[in-house]
Design brief:
Farnesyl Diphosphate Synthase, 2 domains, 14 helices, mainly alpha, 310 residues
Length: 310
C-alpha cells in the first residue's frame, strides 16, 4: 500500500461508516463495488452513502414535510462546507456524528478524484422534489427527475471510476445508464411508491394504455397493465443499450462496476417479465447466487479489452 492510500484514523472511520451504509442499504451496489481497487471503492461508497442519506431524508415518514425539507437543506449546506469553492464561507453547523463522517469521506473523495459538487447537489435537489411533486405528466417530465436522482449520481462517479479518454465523451452514456436504472426502480417499486402517494409512471402514458390509478392501487395485472409495463421495460432496455457505451470509456480495473450495475438492473427487468409484469404481489429481487454470477460475468467482460492508455 502506498502512502497515498494510507488513511489517517479520522478518514478511516469516515470511510468505514460509508462502507457500512452501502453494506446495509445497497445490496446491488455493494456487489458492483466488490472488485474495484480499494481507494476507488472507498470513493464510490462515500458518494453512495451521501445519496442514500438524501433519499432517506426525503422518505422519512417520521418527519413532517417541513422537517424533511429543513434537513435536506442542511445536508446541502454541509456539502457546500465540505467541498467549498474559493471565496465561499458557509456558517458552521451543529455537530452530527454520522453526517460529519460522511462529509469527511466525501471531501477526501473529491480531493482525490475531482468529483463535482454540482452533480452531488443535484441529487439532493431531486430528493427535495419528492417532497412537492408526486405525479409526472410526461416521460420528459419524469426524465428530468430521473436525471437528478440517478444520472447525476453516475456523473459524480465518473472521475472516481477513472476514464480512458475525455470526461465529456462519457457523460451522455452515464446519463442514460442512470436513467435506465432509475426507470427499473420505478417499474419494480410501483406499490411501494403508491404507499407514499407517489406515482412516477408518466400520467399521459398511463392514460394512453388505459391504466387507471385505481387499477394500480388494486394491483390489477391485466392486459392493459402488461402492455404498459412492457412498453416501460422496452424503454429501459433502450437506455441500457445506450448506457453500455460507457463501459469501454472507463479504465479497465473499474469497468466491472458499470458493467455489473447494468447487468444487475437488467436482470431485474428479466424478473419483471418472468413474473408476467406482476410487480404488485411481491417485490422483484435477485438472490445472492444470481448476483454473484452476474458479477463474475461482468468481471470477465471487463477484462476483454486492450490495456488502458498510459
Amino acid at each position: 500500500m502506498t502512502g497515498a492510500d494510507t488513511l489517517t484514523p479520522p478518514l478511516d472511520a469516515a470511510h468505514a461508516h460509508c462502507r457500512a451504509v452501502v453494506a446495509a442499504r445497497a445490496k446491488n451496489f455493494s456487489y458492483a463495488f466488490l472488485l474495484l481497487p480499494p481507494a476507488r471503492r472507498r470513493g464510490l461508497e462515500a458518494i453512495y452513502a451521501y445519496c442514500r442519506v438524501a433519499d432517506d431524508l426525503a422518505d422519512d415518514d417520521g418527519l413532517t414535510t417541513e422537517e424533511r425539507a429543513r434537513r435536506l437543506a442542511d445536508l446541502r449546506a454541509r456539502l457546500r462546507r465540505a467541498l467549498p469553492r474559493p471565496g465561499e464561507v458557509e456558517p458552521a453547523a451543529a455537530p452530527d456524528v454520522e453526517l460529519d463522517l460522511l462529509m469527511t469521506a466525501l471531501a477526501d473523495t473529491a480531493a482525490r478524484y475531482g468529483v463535482s459538487r454540482d452533480d452531488l447537489d443535484l441529487v439532493a435537489q431531486g430528493c427535495e422534489q419528492d417532497l412537492t411533486v408526486t405525479r409526472y405528466e410526461t416521460w420528459d417530465d419524469l426524465r428530468g427527475y430521473c436525471y437528478l436522482v440517478a444520472s447525476a449520481v453516475g456523473l459524480a462517479c465518473l472521475p472516481v471510476f477513472g476514464l480512458r479518454g475525455d470526461l465529456e465523451a462519457a457523460r451522455p452514456f452515464a446519463v442514460d445508464l442512470g436513467l435506465a436504472m432509475q426507470l427499473t426502480n420505478i417499474i419494480r417499486d410501483v406499490q411501494e411508491d403508491l404507499a407514499r402517494d407517489r406515482v412516477y409512471l408518466p400520467q399521459a402514458e398511463l392514460r394512453r394504455f388505459g391504466v387507471t390509478e385505481e387499477a394500480l392501487r388494486e394491483g390489477r395485472v391485466d392486459g392493459t397493465w402488461r402492455a404498459f409495463c412492457a412498453f416501460q421495460v422496452a424503454r429501459a432496455r433502450l437506455l441500457f443499450r445506450s448506457g453500455a457505451r460507457l463501459a469501454p470509456l472507463v479504465r479497465r480495473r473499474s469497468r466491472v462496476c458499470p458493467l455489473a450495475l447494468a447487468a444487475l438492473y437488467d436482470a431485474v427487468l428479466d424478473e419483471v417479465e418472468r413474473a408476467g409484469y406482476d410487480v404488485f404481489s411481491r417485490r422483484v429481487a435477485l438472490g445472492p447466487a444470481r448476483k454473484l454470477g452476474l458479477l463474475g460475468l461482468s468481471f470477465g467482460r471487463g477484462l476483454v479489452t486492450r490495456p488502458d492508455p498510459a
